[in-house]
Design goal:
The complex is a heterodimer of chains A (208) and B (113). Chain A has 208 residues and is mainly beta. Chain A has a domain of 118 residues: 2-Layer Sandwich (Double Stranded RNA Binding Domain). Chain A has three helices and twelve strands, in the order βββαβαββββαββββ. In chain A, the strands form three sheets. Chain A has a six-stranded antiparallel β-barrel with strand order 1-2-11-10-7-12. A four-stranded antiparallel β-sheet of chain A has the order 5-4-3-6. The longest helix of chain A is centred in the N-terminal third of the chain and has 9 residues. Chain A is extended and about 70 Å long. Chain B is mostly beta strands. Chain B contains two helices and five strands. A five-stranded antiparallel β-sheet of chain B has the order 4-3-2-1-5, with no helix packed on it. In chain B, strand 1 and strand 2 form a beta hairpin. Chain B starts with a helix and ends with a helix. Classes of the chains: A mainly beta (208), B mainly beta (113). The interface between A and B is medium-sized, with 18 and 17 residues.
């Protein structure tokens, strides 16, 4: 499982060789540095930990300072682990750049979706609402309807879908295609949209 | 934001002439039929320009056998072989959608063509 960490820059569109317009997301990916190597003997599984986007020494707490010092790496803001090690050099401080990817590669992108705050069931769970604003019901259009029966079970089942906090959760979009790689400026361009707001961190994993 | 412009710059065209709503342009479009490619011309009045940079488009309207035909072109599309500025127009507004309601003669008067 090889991959890289990056930051969402925004969306635009590019033309393919047929002249069709392709919606694209631009990601600033890497350079990343290996901050820890996990081995089967020591940690129970093989993995490589990558760090992205340096931050000031002053902003790092003591335990993390020690962690980065061990790897002889600069302190970073975003750290993620990649299982296995194929494609990523399993060597402390090694650099991972965007040229790992090529046009046409299929990738999965994991990020944190935009927070939407407290939302009702229509937006949050795609409920249809209760009906129309006629026959004396003027305020039921976005209501959840019944949330359970009466004397049996006399309670609302756990997990019943209701309104609540929506978004700001981990989302993975699978099978996205790499449209273009610009290694000079560390840019990765992917067809389609990816989770999260602009400037949010994402993890890009190569498939196969 | 600058980084998006960097990406856009790889496909932006510099050979597109400056034109504005009201102008008459002749757009040469590459059409692929099977494995053959030919160039089709579409001449008419620019009635709208939309967006900026890579994502910008413009709308051209012409009368074809008495029927109004409009086409929206992405400004930087590689399918556009050439854009010719046929005649400069005179327009007081950015969107000339009102031309749709006018007779052909009135269109000429309005756009100063």
């Amino acid at each position: 499982m090889s991959g890289i960490l990056g930051k969402k820059i925004g969306m635009t569109s590019l033309f393919n060789e047929k002249g069709e317009s392709i919606p694209c997301t631009v990601i600033e990916a890497g350079p990343c540095f290996v901050t820890q190597v996990k081995t089967k003997d020591r940690d129970g599984y093989d993995a490589v930990q990558l760090g992205f986007e340096p931050k000031r020494e002053r902003l790092v707490n003591k335990p993390l300072q020690g962690h980065f010092a061990k790897a002889k790496a600069k302190p970073v803001r975003f750290v993620r682990e990649f299982r296995g090690s194929n494609g990523i050099p399993a060597e402390l401080g090694a650099e991972v750049r965007v040229d790992l990817f090529h046009q046409g590669d299929v990738v999965n992108v994991t990020g944190r979706s935009k927070g939407r705050g407290f939302q009702g069931v229509v937006k949050r769970h795609h409920f249809g609402g209760v009906g129309m604003t006629t026959h004396g019901a003027s305020d039921r259009v976005r209501a959840p309807g019944s949330i359970g029966a009466s004397s049996f079970p006399s309670r609302v089942f756990k997990g019943t879908r209701m309104g609540g906090r929506m978004g700001f959760e981990q989302v993975t979009i699978r099978n996205l295609r790499v449209v273009k790689v610009i290694p000079e400026s560390n840019l990765l361009i992917i067809k389609g949209s990816i989770p999260g707001a602009i400037n949010s961190y994402v993890q890009i994993v190569k498939q196969g | 934001m600058e980084k998006i412009k960097l990406v856009d710059a790889t496909q932006m065209r510099s050979d597109i002439p400056a034109f504005k709503p009201g102008d008459t342009v002749n757009v040469h479009v590459r059409v692929v039929e099977g494995d053959k490619e030919r160039v089709q011309q579409f001449q008419g009045v620019v009635i709208s320009k939309h967006g900026s940079g890579m994502n910008s488009t413009f709308t051209v309207r012409k009368m074809s056998d008495g029927v109004g035909v409009e086409r929206i072109f992405p400004t930087h599309s590689p399918r556009i072989a050439k854009i010719e500025l046929v005649k400069g127009g005179r327009s007081r507004r950015a969107k000339l959608f009102y031309l749709r309601k006018l007779a052909a003669k009135a269109v000429h008067q309005k756009t100063g063509a």
